[in-house]
Amino acid sequence: MRASDYLKDTLSSFRKQRLRTALTALGIAIGAFAITLMIGLGQGLQNYIEQQFLAFHDDRVLLVFPSLGRQGGRLLDRITQIGQPARRISEDDEQRRQGRRGGVWISEEQIAALRALPGVELVAPMTTFQVDGIALVDADTSHVGFYGTDFASLVTNPFVGTPSAGVLPVDEDSTQILLAPQYAQSFGLEPQQLIGRQVEIRVPKLGSVMQRFQFRDPGTFEDERKIFRATIVGLAERSAISRAVFPSLALGRSMARYQSGNPDYLSENTLGSQVHVRLTPDADQAGVRRSIAALDLMARSLDDQLQQVNQVFLVVDIVLSFFGALSLLVATLGIANTLLMAITERTREIGVMKALGATSGTIRWMFAIEAAGIGLIGGLSGTGGAVVLGLVGDFFAKRYVAAAAALEGYSVFAYPWWLLFGAPAFSCLIGVLAGLYPASRAARLHPIDALRSE
């Protein structure tokens, strides 16, 4: 038989059993729909997060923090002590406990050693602190109310990137600040109109922050806050970080010292628990990372973090696809059942074909192609349905979801070419596998026995 003959036979079989074929293909379509939609959602979220990273990408920046290896060892030690009687506290145990209560900070000696490494251009703190309001100051030095903020981070943070308007605050200028561009909408102004305007930033003291949640009776609580005034000199790149302020190093130092109550915080060699290290253009990054590891510190680049994000999404995609694969697995039983019924109904036809010279291979191919056709129809239908639903979901997400502004220029669902081709192809393969047994059974029929059947 020629390929066209196989195709005609398959289409003829589908026309004779329209409802049965449609229901069988529907099972495949549901599985393909689930796989395509779930992977599309995962890809859309992954693309969004990748773009957020790439918007601030700087391959010369390393994030450095205390080594976690010893903490992992302590965790293992604690696990091994479960159910065991308490043991005497040693001098080393006492020192470790004091260290944990005091926080995990990079020591002054380590900061000095980092600055002395060949190829290191800058060592700056990576710290965030709480800010619970920002107000735009009018010409008469009054303001019309505070707007919410999520956090403040020093403008030296590598995730700040290049300003979308204005300039970066000068490190040692205690009056300059960079804002997220979404604040222009909050204040009812165009972004460029914010440049040069003054704002008041409300910073709570750390003691009042902690007491608010843990230690103080709400009826007796007295909030302790301080107002810092600054001038907007620039706007950050538009991103999902829409309620953040980025003060200069000098202004941020004053805010953080007030909030923490530590007058030495963010001094020359007291930079907290995490710093970023900017390398010179000709630096040997691998060598610098080895030197940092020798200081009992860990270094991660933005690329490392992006790879970790991608690994997480890979696991998410696999888990989500698993549920769609279960639907396809169930659908294979439907294909096998449909073909077995077709063999029963066409037994005499198979006998006639064999009597006229059709080989077992011809019969096998005939039913295998029919199974592949059912899988392909289901796969194309399911994939197409997922794409359409993704477009509808994108429309409603950008129109009605509260965080729609953060999705500007992005899609919640993303369908790479390999998914659009792979889902139908995989469905077709599932159909072929499901049809192997029925096709082999049809090929084994003896022509005389087939002709005798009613």
SSE blueprint:
Blueprint: H1 3-16, H2 18-55, E1 61-66, H3 69-80, H4 91-101, H5 108-116, E2 120-125, E3 128-129, E4 134-136, E5 151-153, E6 165-166, E7 176-179, H6 183-187, H7 191-194, E8 198-204, H8 206-215, E9 225-235, E10 244-247, H9 249-260, E11 275-279, H10 285-294, E12 297-301, H11 302-345, H12 347-355, H13 360-400, H14 417-443, H15 447-452
Parallel strand pairs: 5-10, 7-9
Antiparallel strand pairs: 1-11, 1-12, 2-11, 3-5, 4-8, 6-9, 7-10, 8-9
Helix pairs in contact: 1-13, 2-11, 2-13, 2-14, 11-14, 13-14
Largest sheet: 8 strands, mixed
Distance between the termini: 26 Å
Q: Give the class from helix and strand content and strand pairing.
A: alpha+beta
Percent of residues in helical segments? 55-70%
Low-pLDDT windows of residues: none
The ordered H/E elements are HHEHHHEEEEEEHHEHEEHEHEHHHHH
* Number of discrete helical segments: 15
Rg from C-alpha positions? 33 Å
Beta-strand percentage range? 5-15%
Number of domains: 3
The pLDDT mean sits at: 77
Number of strands: 12
User: What is the general shape?
Assistant: elongated
